[in-house]
Task: inverse folding
């Protein structure tokens, strides 16, 4: 008993000792009092700062950044007041020792809150500093845009919202990224998604949070936990909070909407949803497509700018009936909308500023301010301020490359090759070889497009800068002495800005004359292109331009270049293409020792006149320039440093056997050549080139764009319209039969093996594509077959056992009058498994598109178009459809059937059509039933066709027709 009692005493003593050693027992009342006083002091200071800021920025002129700070300050003041009340309650307790731990914990929390207030006060100080300095206020951290009122925008981006709903229905899609330029309406779409009726049905809980860069991940977690009603008390670290969130998400089907991220954030660490893949989905917004993919988005949705029509409708609704009441105001309003560049956020800001204003002078003033950037109106300044913060996130080379794009006029289609070469010539990119520099430039361009700073057009060789971003770039460059741009649509040769400018763009300025001898010692780039009335350049015009690196005279009317051209000792890129009258270049051109890029296509210059420029790295020249000169006076092979060569041919009349033979042999001798664009008269000359160029098989870095046979300009370059990593293309036009190709010209197979895009045009005596050597098409990504009159089959399997065309993405079949089937024989497993686009046009003998075996291979087919095939009766014959399963064509999103007068059926309604979003059916009058029911095509959101066809359709379930009615868009009859 004594032993038991003694051990109990020891145990109690140990527990008491441990308790007394806890920090809660060692902290004094004075220390807690100090933390309380510190919190009160900071809270009072915060309140005073808030009141100062409210006074400096009245509600009428207050930015959203400023309003956000004020709202947040009030919230923090209330939190501090709660701490003060808790302290007073704890301090009045009679037995403080018993309640020691709560008092200790409260002291710790008050200290943390005081430090947070101190940090927040620094941000408020920046607002006050900005107001006192007269400088425009910059966003605190990431600018938060106010979501636009959906009541004003009932149809804006409706298709985008519906696309998101279709992704949310897809069990395979867990994360969705929404990306687009600042101001495009991402926040509005996210807000509307939260209220969407379909979303409310699909999910038990919808959480909407804003990620504020300056508050960080901890606050994001706390916000999510708060909406999930998870206990956030205590000092749990991020992994523990993620575990708690994950546990809660396991219990119910939840959608989390996050707006928005500027850089990659690991959502797994925040939400703990690595293993919660069935119940929780996340939709997050970002300005950058790259950020969306880096955060493991299963799919992304691009929020594009509004169309001109949609922008006008939105602006009119916001401004009010004043536009329809006053014709003069309407004219100005149309110009104002154009300057808003289709951005809902900017339209909203500008329109609210002009709502019901009847003063025409005020409208004109606002229009003028909107068109400029020196003193923009309030809405424009707000938008530019937000965009400038996005610009600040770029690295230094990317900033320079972005600003440079502002040299091009508004709405200008900027040629990618030209842009990259200008960046390289300006010195923004530093690499050893021209190829490496171009690759680095492409990387920067990709980042700018991904970050919504530039937009790539349908023709992938061009990009575009939006009006608003161009205004921002001009604004930034005007504040940067090292990057000052002079961009003048209306030019005067007396302009005083010539002497101080570093970059001048006078493109499309209707120039007729230039200053005699401008003082331009600092000038680096001069754009004068597309001034066809500029026929003369003064003799001394280039005298002071020793620093000039880029000179573009494309499309001017000049007949010669002045002697002062020799002063351009720093020039790296010279563009003279399409100067149709240009016949002379001064002999002093040999002094341009740094020149790397020269383009003289479509001029009357010849190789002899530029023979001294043997250090060129990139040369573009017309074939006629090669044949206008004696072989001994100018040879292509003399340009021993060439890395890229493009020889342009626009007429078969230029070809003679002797000239072609000589030119090809010299091109083959260029040892440093890494890129060649050339047109060979026939296969004999392609064979000659390959034989004469020993490095052909040993240079994996060599890229080519070859044509064999003459191709007129009516055939667009297919490589400019695809978004794949294309390096090599081959066009075979009107040559000999396939048997002779392979028996006589062995080099053709070598070239075909390295080809990404293959175009087969106007071939005679060619029964199928396989006869060109299907084994040589392993790397092929795109194939176009057109006007081959004898082709009956695309792929014929004569006993082959290995899959073919495993990497083919796009297949275009056009104008084949004898085509009967796409595939003949046994369909090999693994063939065409990556095909995403199939277009069949003008094949009058084709009766069925798919065989049983072929359709089973097309798991990735997303776009299918069949048009003007007048004998097609079924997309797949009923006898072939048995045993297909319900998941055939499971990835198909867009389906077009045009001018198929005999078409009677597509597929039966047992197919799921699990990805189909849009179907267009035009002039298919015998098609009486659609293959849809209430159980399939859940993502279908658009049906296009003639109204008469739609009304004549037969339905088993009229209620289902009514459901689809809202998705039907009647086509207008042809004019």
Result:
């Amino acid at each position: 008993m004594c032993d038991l009692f003694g051990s109990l005493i020891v145990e109690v003593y140990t527990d008491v000792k441990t308790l007394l050693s806890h920090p809660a027992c060692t902290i004094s009342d004075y220390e807690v009092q100090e933390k309380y006083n510190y919190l009160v002091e900071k809270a009072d200071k915060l309140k005073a700062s808030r009141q100062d800021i409210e006074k400096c920025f009245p509600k009428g002129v207050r930015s959203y950044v400023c309003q956000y700070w004020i709202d947040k300050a009030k919230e923090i003041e209330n939190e501090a007041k709660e701490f003060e009340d808790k302290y007073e309650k704890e301090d009045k307790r009679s037995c403080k020792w018993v309640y020691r731990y709560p008092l200790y914990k409260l002291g710790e929390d008050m200290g943390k809150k005081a430090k947070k207030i101190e940090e927040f006060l620094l941000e408020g100080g920046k607002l006050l500093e900005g107001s006192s300095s007269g400088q425009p206020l910059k966003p605190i951290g990431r600018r938060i845009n106010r979501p636009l009122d959906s009541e004003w925008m009932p149809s804006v981006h409706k298709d985008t919202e519906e696309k998101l709903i279709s992704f949310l229905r897809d069990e395979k899609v867990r994360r969705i990224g929404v990306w687009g330029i600042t101001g495009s309406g991402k926040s509005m779409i996210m807000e509307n998604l939260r209220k969407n009726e379909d979303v409310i049905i699909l999910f038990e809980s919808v959480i909407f949070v804003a990620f504020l860069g300056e508050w960080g991940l901890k606050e994001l977690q706390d916000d999510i936990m708060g909406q999930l009603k998870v206990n956030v008390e205590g000092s749990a670290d991020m992994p523990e909070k993620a575990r708690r969130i994950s546990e809660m998400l396991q219990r119910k089907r939840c959608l989390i909407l996050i707006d928005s991220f500027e850089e990659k954030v690991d959502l797994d660490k925040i939400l703990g949803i690595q293993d919660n893949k069935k119940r929780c989905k996340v939709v997050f917004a970002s300005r950058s497509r790259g950020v969306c993919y880096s955060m493991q988005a299963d799919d992304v949705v691009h929020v594009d700018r509004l169309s001109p029509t949609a922008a006008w409708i939105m602006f009119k609704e916001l401004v009010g009936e004043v536009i329809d009441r006053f014709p003069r105001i309407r004219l100005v309003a149309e110009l104002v909308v154009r300057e808003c560049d289709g951005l809902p956020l900017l339209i909203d800001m500008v329109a609210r500023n002009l709502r019901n204003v009847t003063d025409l002078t005020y409208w004109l003033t606002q229009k003028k301010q909107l068109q400029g950037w020196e003193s923009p109106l309030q809405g424009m300044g707000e938008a530019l301020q937000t965009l400038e913060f996005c610009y600040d996130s770029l690295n230094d080379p990317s900033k320079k490359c972005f600003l440079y794009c502002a040299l091009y006029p508004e709405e200008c289609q900027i040629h990618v090759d030209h842009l990259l070469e200008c960046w390289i010539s300006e010195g923004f990119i530093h690499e050893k070889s021209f190829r490496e520099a171009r690759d680095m430039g492409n990387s920067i361009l990709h980042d700018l497009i991904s970050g919504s700073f530039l937009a790539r057009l349908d023709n992938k060789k061009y990009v575009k800068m939006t009006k608003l971003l161009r205004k921002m770039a001009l604004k930034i460059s005007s504040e940067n002495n090292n990057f000052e741009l002079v961009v003048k649509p209306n030019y005067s040769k007396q302009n005083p800005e010539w002497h101080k400018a570093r970059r001048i763009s006078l493109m499309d300025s209707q120039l007729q004359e230039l200053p005699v001898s401008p003082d331009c010692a600092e000038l680096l780039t001069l754009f004068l292109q597309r001034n066809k009335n500029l026929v003369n350049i003064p003799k001394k015009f280039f005298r002071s331009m020793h620093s000039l690196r880029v000179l573009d005279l494309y499309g001017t009317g000049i007949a010669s270049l002045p002697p002062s051209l020799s002063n351009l000792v720093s020039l790296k890129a010279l563009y003279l293409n399409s100067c149709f009258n240009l016949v002379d270049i001064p002999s002093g051109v040999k002094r341009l020792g740094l020149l790397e890029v020269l383009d003289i296509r479509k001029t009357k210059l010849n190789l002899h006149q530029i023979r001294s420029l043997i250090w060129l790295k990139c040369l573009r020249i017309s074939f006629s320039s090669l044949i206008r000169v004696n072989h001994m006076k100018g040879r292509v092979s003399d340009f021993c440093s060439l890395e890229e060569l493009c020889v342009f041919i626009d007429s078969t009349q230029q070809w003679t056997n002797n000239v072609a033979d000589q030119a090809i042999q010299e091109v083959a001798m260029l040892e440093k050549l890494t890129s060649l664009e050339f047109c060979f008269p026939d296969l004999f000359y392609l064979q000659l080139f390959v034989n004469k160029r020993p490095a052909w098989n040993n240079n994996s870095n060599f890229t080519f764009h070859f044509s064999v046979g003459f191709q007129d300009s009516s055939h667009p370059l297919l490589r400019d319209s695809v978004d794949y990593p294309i390096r090599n293309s081959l066009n075979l036009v009107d040559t000999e039969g396939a048997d002779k190709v392979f028996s006589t010209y062995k080099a053709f197979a070598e070239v075909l093996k390295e080809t990404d895009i293959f175009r087969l045009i106007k071939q005679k005596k060619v029964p199928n594509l396989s006869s060109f050597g299907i084994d040589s098409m392993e790397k092929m990504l795109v194939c176009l077959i057109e006007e081959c009159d004898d082709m009956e089959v695309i792929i014929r399997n004569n006993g082959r056992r290995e899959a073919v065309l495993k990497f083919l993405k796009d297949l275009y079949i056009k104008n084949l009058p004898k085509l009967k089937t796409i595939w003949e024989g046994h369909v090999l497993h693994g063939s065409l498994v990556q095909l995403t686009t199939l277009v069949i046009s003008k094949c009058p003998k084709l009766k069925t598109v798919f065989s049983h075996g072929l359709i089973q291979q097309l798991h990735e087919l997303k776009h299918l178009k069949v048009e003007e095939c007048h004998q097609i009766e079924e997309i797949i014959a009923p006898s072939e459809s048995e045993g297909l399963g319900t998941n055939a064509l499971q990835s198909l999103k867009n389906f077009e059937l045009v001018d198929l007068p005999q078409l009677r059926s597509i597929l039966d309604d047992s197919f799921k059509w699990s990805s189909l979003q849009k179907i267009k059916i035009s002039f298919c009058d015998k098609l009486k039933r659609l293959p849809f029911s209430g159980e399939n095509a859940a993502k279908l959101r658009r049906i296009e066709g003639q109204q008469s066809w739609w009304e004549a359709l037969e339905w088993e379930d009229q209620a289902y027709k009514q459901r689809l009615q809202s998705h039907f868009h009647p086509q207008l009859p042809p004019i």
Notes: The two ends are 110 Å apart (CA to CA).
